[in-house]
Amino acid sequence: MSKLPHILVIEDETTLAGVIKDYLVDAGMTVTLLHEGTTATQTILGAKPDLVVLDIMLPGKDGITICREVRAQSEVPIIMETAKVDEIDRLLGLELGADDYLCKPFSPRELVARIKAVLRRTGISRSDQEEGSAEARLQLDEEKWLTRLDGQIIKLTRREFQLLLVLHKSGGRVYSRSQLLDAVFRDDADVFDRTIDSHIKNLRNKLKQVAPDYDPIRSVYGVGYAFEL
Ligand code: CA
Questions:
Q1: 83 and 152 both lie in a single domain
Q2: Above pLDDT 90, what percent of the chain?
Q3: Is the pLDDT of residue 7 over 70?
Q4: What pTM did the predictor assign?
Q5: How far does the centroid of ligand 1 lie from the alpha carbon of residue 119, in Å?
Q6: Which strands form 152-154's sheet, in the order they lie side by side?
């Protein structure tokens, strides 16, 4: 990235916000801080940052509402901060469209790593659409239901194709098993969370048969799956 990435941090604990800012600036980012929620949506849409770090508990308006409002109009990468680890599954269930979730208390180092990962993912998917480069290993043709890896056609079942498509399109977002069930098995009553696991396993094996080094599906412990570029 040639210009410094601009990160908007919306966090009402001013001390924490200050520490975050120091770390991000050290990591080569430009940082804007906002300490309340009321003006957050318009600030995000107006400032067009490269990424937003968004706390959930904020004075004025909560992060969940802000995330929804922003997603209606913008695909800007969002990392949500939550106070509880067991809240993450509930948040995923709300389908907010956030790119990652971080549990408080977190180390600023961890936040820097997550920001870089999300920027890399979203940056890559953007340049791929422009240049057709890095993502070209895996190609999914939605109209023909065709999967190509390194130019070779892979035979996938309809479910496997749908699963791969949902994950692949998401730009690295984490999906819970129940979200994947909803997305892929909507018309099928007798499926369980484990069904997703076995389809993912088959999918991975099929991809590995063509390219042993290629394993883009990331298991997120206790939560579900994501597609990693
Ligand atoms: Ca807060």
A1: no
A2: 43
A3: yes
A4: 0.59
A5: 24
A6: 138-141, 146-149, 152-154
CA of 12 to the centre of ligand 1 (A): 5
1 lies in some domain: no
Whether residue 212 sits in one domain with residue 157: yes
Q: How close is the Cα of 87 to the center of ligand 1, in Å?
A: 15
131, exposed or middle or buried, with CB in 10 Å at 0-12, 13-18, 19+?
exposed
Q: How far is the CA of 215 from the centre of ligand 1 (A)?
A: 37
pLDDT at 221: 76
How far does the centroid of ligand 1 lie from the alpha carbon of residue 36, in Å?
9
Separation CA 167–CA 218 (nearest Å): 10
User: Rounded to a whole number, what is the distance in angstroms from the first to the last CA of the chain?
Assistant: 17
Closest CA to 76 of 97, 90, 103: 97
Give the domain CATH number at 100.
Answer: 3.40.50.2300
**Residue 86 pLDDT exceeds 50:** yes
Higher pLDDT, 72 or 187: 72
Q: Are residues 42 and 60 in the same domain?
A: yes
Q: Which of 70, 101, 124 is the last residue of a domain?
A: 124
Domain, as residue range, for 115: 6-124
Q: Measured in angstroms, how far is the CA atom of residue 158 from the centroid of ligand 1? A: 43
Q: What tens digit of pLDDT does each residue of 149-196 get?
A: 888 889 998 889 989 998 988 767 888 888 888 888 877 666 777 788
Q: How many domains does the structure of the chain reveal? A: 2
State in Å: Cα 218 to ligand 1 middle.
30
- For ligand 1, the distance from its centroid to the CA atom of residue 107, given in whole angstroms, is 16
Q: At which of 124, 159, 192 does a domain end? A: 124
- Centre of ligand 1 to C-alpha 86, Å, is 17
**70 in a domain, yes or no?**
yes
What integer pLDDT is reported at residue 215 of this predicted model? 86
| Residue 112 sits in the same domain as residue 146 | no
Q: In angstroms, rounded to a whole number, what is the distance separating the alpha carbons of residues 216 and 207?
A: 9
